[in-house]
């Protein structure tokens, strides 16, 4: 019977990736808590990632690991490198990031949007939307796209042209429901698919 079948390898890997991503978020938040990433903390995080080597080539593990490896290459982390690593972790993790200058916590932007921002061509363009939009209900966002000749599909695919991410869904996207679509879009973009990931703000300016 179908319920007796073991889960497929891809499903198991996806579940492990989700669990390990959540653990990575927790670790990074801990490192960010005091506004400083020490050499010991950086080495601990790099060692943890190497112990989870099957995910090192996946986003966001790959980007963080690359920065860690470069910073630790000479065995010493100076103040500037520590600040760069702190900013990198804050961008990827999101949520509360400590601002050492202001001595306050601030929101960090974590979205892996295209830079530079692309020109959005609505007519005939294939769109995916995710997150919660400040512009209005999802239905209104869809209507605006369709009004201009755009086509909506439910999830990123090779035929997609744009993933538009609602600004109210950007915080902690990695562990949110929106994260699944964003991760898929990143994979497609990294594989060479001409899929642009754009923010709600850029989408709104393009209307």
Can you put this structure into words, describing what you see?
α1 (9-32) crosses α4 and α3 runs antiparallel to α4 (79-93). The longest helix is centred in the N-terminal third of the chain and has 24 residues, at 9-32. A four-stranded parallel beta sheet has the order 4-3-5-6, with helices on both faces. The N and C termini lie far apart (51 Å). Mean pLDDT is 79; it is low at 95-109. It has helices spanning 9-32, 39-51, 61-71, 79-93, 138-147, 178-190, 200-205, and strands at residues 96-99, 104-107, 126-130, 151-152, 162-165, 196-199. The protein is of the alpha/beta class and 207 residues long. The protein has two domains: 2-107, no CATH class; 126-205, Rossmann fold (3-Layer(aba) Sandwich). A hairpin with a 4-residue loop joins β1 and β2.
Keywords:
44% helix, four-stranded parallel beta sheet, 2 domains, 207 residues, Rossmann fold, alpha/beta
